[in-house]
């Protein structure tokens, strides 16, 4: 079957690609666009490692077709840091040692970005429920929750 | 990989035409809304070639209309979008609770109540709530649209009444008046990210004296399809929806259920839990209808 031409915006840049109709957006990102910060865990929408923002809304890149990016605006982990350095969320994940193997980390950071954009001062229960779709098999989650809280405080001070 | 194709028609008529062409040519076509079930299927055992027909470009499937008499929820509207609508949440709290229970934040950003219905899982969280809220399926056909009560939509595990060439445009609900409210509860062994072991939805209408004048009860994950249980509703009508009436309704739910035993729970356990959830959901719906919660 012929490939589909897609025009989209990823991390603020206009991007064009050709993809197979059945290719997931995650496959396009990793295999064709070589943006490999977004990870594949389960490929069935259960683990959150492939979290990206679609028009600002948190979704799993594995549950979205590459063709569905047409005309949309996407943010991946590569779009979180700025030229000035790491985003405060990334910085706090480092400071709080909220990662070990790191495979889940890009998904957690993107999911945290979506949370704090929507709710700058979430309580712990809100944080835990929001991140329930991001699985981490190393940390036991507590350090991640502390890092999210610290990032929220930091961003509140910056604002 | 075999022959996959993707189309995103701009009109309802074009969508029906694509679906009918495929049906008459003996080719497979499948409707895509949020994709949270479909893409898992494509990557799993069911990876046969097909044409994926995306319905997210249509005006009608994206329409959310809260009218004076009627509410319409387009089949392509993501659950997270519904949940952010405070007016809708106040009108149909049980329905929105049921849709908010599906999957994670990530899944919420894509999944739709129309897709949940059309996937036709016996354990679909929103279907019992759609049924008790008197949801009506608005189905696009080659001659326009047809309408069908939601309780008549699912025909078996993963099957429904949609004929080749048809697709769900959205769901319409009567706008609940004062004294009417709903609730949905499901049991899962964890607090988040699981499939219902049992789900129960209840909708009640109370008059000024607190007497129940109308009720609907539906159960999920305890039969091949979500089921409406008129006998349970009858046990509530004419009562104050007190403990005795709720207990009687719970017994009717147990009697109506025909669950299987699987890794999520035994049939015996499910028959018991369906009565418990009926009592609790009924009490929540009652309190909401009285405006005390």
Rg of chain B (CA only): 19 Å
Q: Going by CATH, what is the homologous superfamily of the largest domain in chain A?
A: Beta-grasp domain
The largest sheet of chain A is: 5 strands, mixed
**Can you count the helices of chain A?**
5
List the uncertain runs of chain A: none
Mean pLDDT of chain B: 96
CATH class of the largest domain in chain B: Alpha Beta
List segments of chain B where confidence is low: pLDDT < 50 over at least 5 consecutive residues: none
Task: Calculate Rg of chain A over CA atoms.
Answer: 16 Å
Overall mean pLDDT of chain A: 97
User: How much strand of chain B?
Assistant: 15-25%
Kindly name the structural category of chain B.
alpha+beta
Total domain modules of chain B: 2
| Alpha-beta content class of chain A | alpha+beta
Distance between the termini of chain A: 50 Å
Question: In what range is the share of β-strand residues of chain A?
Answer: 15-25%
What's the number of structural domains of chain A? 2
CATH classification class of the largest domain in chain A? Alpha Beta
Inertia-based shape of chain A:
globular
- Amino-to-carboxy terminus distance of chain B: 53 Å
> Judging by the overall fold, what is the CATH architecture of the largest domain in chain A?
Roll
What does the model show?
The complex is a heterodimer of chains A (159) and B (293). By secondary structure, chain A is α+β, with helices and mostly antiparallel strands. Chain A has 2 domains: 76 residues, Beta-grasp domain (Ubiquitin-like (UB roll), Roll), CATH 3.10.20.30; 71 residues, [2Fe-2S]-binding domain (DNA polymerase, domain 1, Orthogonal Bundle), CATH 1.10.150.120. Chain A contains 5 helices and 5 strands, in the order ββαβββαααα. Chain A has a 5-stranded mixed sheet, with helices on both faces. In chain A, a hairpin with a 2-residue loop joins β3 and β4. The longest helix of chain A has 17 residues. The model of chain A has no long low-confidence stretch (mean pLDDT 97). Chain B is of the alpha+beta class and 293 residues long. Chain B folds into 2 domains: 158 residues, Uridine Diphospho-n-acetylenolpyruvylglucosamine Reductase, domain 3 (2-Layer Sandwich); 107 residues, CO dehydrogenase flavoprotein, C-terminal domain (Enolase-like, domain 1). Helix content of chain B is 34%, strand content 25%. Chain B has 11 helices and 14 strands. Chain B has a 5-stranded antiparallel sheet with strand order 4-5-10-6-7. Chain B has a 4-stranded antiparallel sheet with strand order 11-12-13-14, sandwiched between helices. In chain B, a hairpin with a 5-residue loop joins β12 and β13. Chain B is globular, with a radius of gyration of 19 Å. Chains A and B meet through β4 and α3 of A and α2 and α6 of B.
């Amino acid at each position: 079957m012929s490939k589909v031409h897609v025009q989209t915006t990823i991390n603020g840049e206009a991007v064009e690609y050709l993809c197979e109709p059945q290719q997931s957006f995650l496959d396009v990102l990793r295999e064709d666009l070589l943006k490999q910060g977004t990870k594949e865990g389960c490929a069935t929408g259960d683990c959150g490692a492939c979290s990206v923002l679609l028009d600002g809304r948190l979704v799993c890149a594995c549950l979205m077709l590459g063709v569905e990016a047409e005309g949309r605006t996407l943010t991946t982990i590569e779009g979180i840091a700025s030229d000035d350095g790491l985003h405060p969320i990334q910085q706090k994940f480092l400071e709080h040692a909220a990662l070990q193997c790191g495979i889940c980390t890009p998904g957690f950071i993107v999911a945290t970005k979506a949370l704090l954009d929507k709710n700058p001062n979430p309580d712990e229960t809100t944080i835990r429920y929001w991140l329930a779709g991001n699985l981490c098999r190393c940390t036991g989650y507590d350090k991640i929750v502390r890092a999210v809280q610290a990032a929220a405080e930091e961003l509140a001070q910056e604002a | 990989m075999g022959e996959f194709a993707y189309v995103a028609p701009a009109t309802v008529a074009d969508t029906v035409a694509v679906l009918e062409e495929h049906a008459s040519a003996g080719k497979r076509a499948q409707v895509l809304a949020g994709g949270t079930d479909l893409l898992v299927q494509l990557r799993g055992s069911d990876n046969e070639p097909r044409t994926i027909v995306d319905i997210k470009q249509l005006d009608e499937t994206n329409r959310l209309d809260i009218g004076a008499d009627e509410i319409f929820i387009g089949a392509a509207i993501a659950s997270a979008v519904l949940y952010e609508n405070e007016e809708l949440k106040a009108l149909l709290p049980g329905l929105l609770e049921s849709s908010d229970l599906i999957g994670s934040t990530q899944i919420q950003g894509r999944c739709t109540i129309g897709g949940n219905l059309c996937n036709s899982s016996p354990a679909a969280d929103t279907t019992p709530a759609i049924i008790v809220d008197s949801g009506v399926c608005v189905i696009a056909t080659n001659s326009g649209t047809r309408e069908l009560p939601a309780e008549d939509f699912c025909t078996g595990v993963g099957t429904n009444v949609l004929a080749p060439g048809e697709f769900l445009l959205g769901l319409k609900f009567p706008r609940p008046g004062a004294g009417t409210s709903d609730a949905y509860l499901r049991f899962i062994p964890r607090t988040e990210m699981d499939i219902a072991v049992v789900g129960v939805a209840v909708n009640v209408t109370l008059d000024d004296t607190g007497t129940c004048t109308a009720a609907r009860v539906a159960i999920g994950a305890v039969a091949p399809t979500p089921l409406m249980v008129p006998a349970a509703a009858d046990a509530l009508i004419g009562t104050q929806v007190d403990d005795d009436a709720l207990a009687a309704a719970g017994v009717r739910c147990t009697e109506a259920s025909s669950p299987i035993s699987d890794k999520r729970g035994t049939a015996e356990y499910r028959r018991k839990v369906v009565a418990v959830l009926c009592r609790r959901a009924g009490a929540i719906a009652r309190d909401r209808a009285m405006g005390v919660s």
